[in-house]
Write a structure and sequence with these properties.
The chain is of the alpha+beta class. The protein is built from eleven helices and ten strands. Helix 7 runs antiparallel to helix 8 and helix 9 (about 295-320) runs antiparallel to helix 10 (about 335-350). The chain binds 2-acetamido-2-deoxy-1-O-phosphono-alpha-D-glucopyranose (GN1) and magnesium ion.
Amino acid sequence: MNKKTIENELQLTLETVLEYYPNSSTERSTSLLGNGLINHTYLIKSKEKSFVLQRINDHVFQQPWLVTRNADLINQHLLLKKQQGYYPLATISQLTNKKNDTLLQLDSGYWRAIEFIPCSYSVEVVETPEQAESVANAFAEFNAALSDFPAEQLSEIIPDFHHLAHRLQQLTEAINIDKVKRKPHCQALINYCFEQQEFIKEVADLIKVLPVKVTHNDTKINNLLFSSNTHKAIAVIDLDTCMPGFLMHDFGDMVRTCCSNLPEDGTTLVQMTVRLDIFNALAKGYISTLDKQISKIEKDSLIVGALLIPFMMAVRFLTDYLDGDNYFHIKHQEHNLERAKNQMQLFELLSQQREQLSKIVANT
Ligand code: GN1
Ligand code: MG
């Protein structure tokens, strides 16, 4: 199929989906939105109402109705906190369709619509420490507002999502099956992963004693909206993986996506550096906002989270590479391997600077 035919087909699919949403005039434009690696996201613009339309990836989210249900529950909670004056950010609701539901199942897949926040933008690479501090403030506000959320109401959308031993088990299986015969291309990286036994053990011991919280689990920089006027973070988006977890996971994903000077698929690895001023700002923004809601053991765990999330992402990208790219969207054949190498390099750099980074956290 050529590009034009694909575009026409997509347009027709979107038209069918839009019939289920009220007030979406025929004079509208549709465009791709964001850089998510899982779902397909579109911006639907019309004079009366603009909104975000998303096709939920049901290979990754095998029970999409739980994804929209979780998001509704979290939004209700955040809205209540906001009304009580305890949540300063905007909440972004899912829209109800003509079937009176927030999830729509059609032959073309599972769809949902989400409010669009005007005068906002998202960021792929943090530019200043002020911006990083605002990122950390926002995700900490989110964590704080959910601290009294009844976690048992949430479905565990992807079980063991951030469980390192489980991710290493998946890697081992992918290596053993070697479905697309790529093992020889990445043997050195595979070896490096399994050489990190000391760190793997440290994580396994730590998770036995850390308190479980409701966390976002995808706190990468592009899951925030910034105000076009104040340039501060104004809303947390993408609640897909909001589940019970540890604060160190949410801090770690911020470090992963803010502190590297390269994007997660950048290939000029010799140029990669950890930006200490950005790390400093993240630690300050996160710990000061959580204040009494972060315990000593959780504060001490942040440095482990900062190493853990890049390491785990390297493992996940490598697993998908060996598995023939079934999970993350890719733009070319080697994309997942490039991402895996990038994330492992970040883990390596963070490990080398661990002492210095720990001191920053301890002194915050
Ligand atoms: C995926 O699609 P997106 O960008 O929201 C992934 C995250 C990864 C991220 C890496 C459900 O998130 O865990 O950190 O890619 N989401 C899922 O960029 O696996
Ligand atoms: Mg996501």
